[in-house]
Amino acid sequence: RHKEALAARSADDLRSPICVILGHVDTGKTKLLDKIRQTNVQGGEAGGITQQIGATFFPMSAINEKTKKLRENLTKQVEYKLPGLLIIDTPGHESFSNLRSRGSSLCNIAVLVVDIMHGLEPQTIESLQLLKDRKTPFVVALNKIDRLFDWQVYPNYPVQESLKLQKKHVIKEFNDRVEKTMLAFSEQGLNSCLYYNNKNFSKYVSLIPTSAHTGEGVPDILHLLVELSQSRMTDSLMYLSEIECTVLEVKVIEGLGTTLDIILSNGILKEGDKIVVCGTNGPISTVVRALLTPQPMRELRVKGEYVKHKEVKAALGVKLVASDLENAIAGSRLMVIGPDDDEEEIMDAVMEDLTGLMENVEKK
Ligand code: GDP
């Protein structure tokens, strides 16, 4: 069945890549996510950006808007082909390391945040190890450039435009710090360079100077995430007819009972689907009773906290309601049992992940 699903894919119909933000504490992960979420559009209109369960969806229209100035200055024009970008809301590497079920593809691309004033720190190195272990492509946000002495702020500018306007001594300090960071990365066995000097993305990690306070470099992050995803990852971004899904969190919600916050990475999940997830007392087999997402922002006044969906299509974050979820484990893979499937086989496959997940549960 997996082979058939693979054969039916098409490079013309890609899903949104899923992105996580990780790095050392206080480097600005949360702030950067906030800044990316902000829109230039006035009057509360979010430009189509929607808050999902555990994730935020940026439609290509919003990314287009935010990268307009950057793309005007590019010598080589790039056509954006993806529907958008799904960014996981909980920065930090817990959300990443706890979700280690082997079958899951929760994360397609990552942003590793480094404080330009501090360079590589202990959790930066841990994050690097995780990214290496999972072979996740990533870019580095070299954050807090506004803290360089005498930095002049040009809000939301592409970083090269802003750098051009800085004083000589600021550029010197900037270059010194970038140099130091590159050296520290090479001590970790990684080649790196400023992203706009990068001629070989498979050999060099891209450094994107950013400020989560001023928004400088933020267009650059979005542009690079889209460009790298669509030029180098089309294979993992083609729609699959079978689903790839991960349990982010297990939550008790008043009126709904125990629910699962899930990230659907690929495929379509429907109300009434028979599913299997990992449980502390063995595999849990149940039926999807409801699939919920938050109300879009402008419809907040509409009654009811959630919008109900008959079916949902990847990639997105959803709240799943079903019975018997009390012992479900966060990080578990979620699989659907089709009419022709061997339930036992699927249960075994899901439970294969348990060893790794339990280690994490015990550590908590
Ligand atoms: P996290 O722990 O990585 O999520 O870091 P936060 O986003 O909470 O940021 C930690 C601190 O650094 C906060 O006080 C932020 O206001 C500050 N900060 C984050 N990004 C920037 C930046 O680009 N420039 C400056 N000057 N401060 C920043």
TrEMBL record:
GO terms for molecular function: GTP binding; GTPase activity; metal ion binding; translation initiation factor activity. It is found in: Cytoplasm. Signal peptide: none annotated. Its main location: cytoplasm. Keywords: Coiled coil, Cytoplasm, GTP-binding, Hydrolase, Initiation factor, Metal-binding, Nucleotide-binding, Protein biosynthesis. Residues 14-234 form the Tr-type G domain. One of its GO terms (cellular component) is mitochondrion. Belongs to the TRAFAC class translation factor GTPase superfamily. Classic translation factor GTPase family. IF-2 subfamily. This is Eukaryotic translation initiation factor 5B. It comes from Clydaea vesicula.
